[in-house]
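Researcher: I'd like a candidate sequence for this fold, 349 residues long. If you have to choose between options at a position, lean toward the conservative one.
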């Protein structure tokens, strides 16, 4: 999804070939990433035949966010054709943002259809792609034997998801990380995250990747590449990887604490709200205002990450009882932030 110009087919194919030459062998795409699947289809069959540097096999991952079994099957058939392969290595139930959403798709028979398609040899692994909070991820993995889970995880939001990662590790499921650089927030705010670069000559990106490479619960990091320089930087971080020392871990922990001063850490002590408002999601989105500076970023985060659109009126139910604010471990002005978000949502609607 990070191809800079999808119309420039040769450049996109060349970028993937360059990544394979660097030893990268897991490629994640989706029907919703513009022409990404068709572009990957120009190179994946060749890479499948040849393998990547070092002779390692190539894996391709794609997804369906459809909620009915027949629609999921049609998505899969289209993906197979576009990608030019006989089977998808990792096929995801895509964009599950709430436990209710998961239960709805399950009740519709989506999981049974995924099982059937796996039995037919069209899918090698059935996977979950989710933006749920950690405890909900752990519960979902306990409900169905997804082979792996694809989740957003970075130094910025690790607190939100760590329980889900723990759950996956305990159940022996794979963990694939999307947005390991916080969707570009970390390189854009290199000064703020300088504490991640713990060694001489380190870049902030290299430091952030080392933080994740050091976590044995994680199996794949999906670093989005737009140019060869970014591939070189990530490949270099892997090549030079050496585990973090106790002192480095301590320094990063301290940096995270200081960096998240006045920011929501995702601990969820503010929940449950008597009105059923998912307070931590709104406050997590607010973090992006502090990092990137505008309310538009907050609304975009709510929409894209948490599936909360501007026409969602849940915040109108807030009685300002301040139960969430009293419980907040960071002593954040929770109600004031919720009020500001509510105003922005109403203005946007
Ligand atoms: S202040 Fe609003 S969001 Fe917080 S607990 Fe009360 S009703 Fe829920
Ligand atoms: S208690 Fe405070 S820091 Fe924790 S999730 Fe809620 S708002 Fe965020």
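Model: Candidate sequence:
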């Amino acid at each position: 999804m990070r191809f800079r110009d999808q119309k420039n087919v040769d450049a996109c194919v060349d970028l993937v070939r360059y990544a394979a030459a660097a030893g990268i062998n897991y490629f994640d795409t989706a029907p919703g990433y513009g022409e990404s699947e068709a572009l990957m289809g120009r190179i994946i069959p060749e890479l499948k035949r040849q393998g990547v540097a070092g002779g390692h096999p190539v894996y391709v991952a794609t997804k369906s966010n459809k909620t009915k079994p027949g629609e999921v099957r049609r998505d899969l058939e289209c993906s197979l054709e576009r990608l030019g392969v006989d089977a998808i290595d990792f096929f995801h139930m895509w964009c599950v943002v709430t436990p209710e959403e998961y239960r709805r798709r399950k009740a519709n028979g989506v999981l049974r259809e995924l099982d059937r398609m796996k039995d037919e040899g069209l899918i090698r692994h059935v996977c979950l792609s989710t933006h749920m909070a950690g405890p909900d991820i752990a519960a979902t993995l306990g409900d169905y034997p997804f082979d792996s889970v694809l989740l957003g995880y970075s130094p910025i939001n690790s607190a939100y998801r760590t329980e889900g990662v723990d759950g996956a590790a305990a159940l022996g499921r794979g963990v694939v990380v999307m947005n390991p650089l916080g969707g570009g927030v970390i390189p854009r705010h290199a000064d703020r995250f300088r504490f991640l670069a713990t060694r001489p000559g380190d870049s902030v990106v290299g430091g952030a990747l080392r933080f994740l490479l050091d976590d044995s619960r994680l199996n794949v990091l999906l670093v989005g590449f737009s140019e060869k320089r970014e591939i070189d930087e990530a490949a270099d971080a892997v090549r030079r990887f050496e585990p973090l020392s106790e002192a480095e871990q301590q320094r990063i922990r301290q940096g995270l604490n200081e960096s998240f001063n006045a920011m929501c850490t995702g601990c969820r002590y503010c929940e449950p709200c008597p009105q059923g408002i998912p307070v931590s999601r709104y406050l997590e989105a607010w973090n992006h205002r502090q990092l990137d500076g505008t309310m538009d970023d907050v609304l975009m985060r709510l929409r894209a990450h948490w599936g909360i659109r501007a026409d969602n009126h849940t915040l109108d139910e807030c009685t300002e009882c301040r139960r969430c604010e009293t419980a907040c471990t960071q002593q954040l002005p929770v109600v004031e932030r919720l009020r500001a978000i509510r105003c922005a949502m109403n203005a946007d609607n």
